[in-house]
Amino acid sequence: MRKAAFATRKAAFTRGQGQAAELLADYLAPYSGDVLGAYMPILSEANPLAAMKAHQGPVCVPVIIGAGQALRFREWTPECPMVVGEFGALIPQEGAWLEPELLIVPLVAFDRRGYRLGYGGGFYDRTLQALRAHKPTLAIGFAFAAQELPLVPTDTTDQPLDAIITEQGLITLG
Length: 174
Fold this sequence. Notes:
- It is a single chain.
- The chain is an alpha/beta fold.
- The protein has one domain (2-61, 99-171): NagB/RpiA/CoA transferase-like (Rossmann fold, 3-Layer(aba) Sandwich), CATH 3.40.50.10420.
- The chain has 4 helices and 12 strands, in the order H-H-E-H-E-E-E-E-E-E-E-E-H-E-E-E.
- An 8-stranded mixed β-sheet has the order 6-3-2-1-7-10-11-12, sandwiched between helices. Strands 4-5 form a two-stranded antiparallel sheet.
- Strand 4 (82-84) and strand 5 (90-92) form a beta hairpin.
- The two termini are 22 Å apart.
């Protein structure tokens, strides 16, 4: 399933994401001042950089600390020096460690229940579980509409998304 979903995402990526990042920025606008966790896109992921730059508040990106651990988030600005981290994603060379209140989540596939198929390492599920254990944390999937599946397999450790934004707009979950 993951292999087929990667192929679908790659094909969608080649067609372009249209105004997806702007739609994401519009969705995030009411959360001005909140700490936004986002990601530096790799491979054929939808690119959230325009929404990250537009956010009126601190922005941070994930740093993989180790296998089986939750992600940590380092403050990011468009001008900060970046280095290559795990899996080839860029991470800030230095900066404050922040705890996001909103989290843009990359994915390989999703369903309308709000579940996602990720890369298989469980990093975002562990991270969301840890964040949500002590405060509300809004998780927004960012993807291409073509990545939607009728049903994504889940287990007890999977954390649902609160919203999904694609180039076609907001997808209502539930």
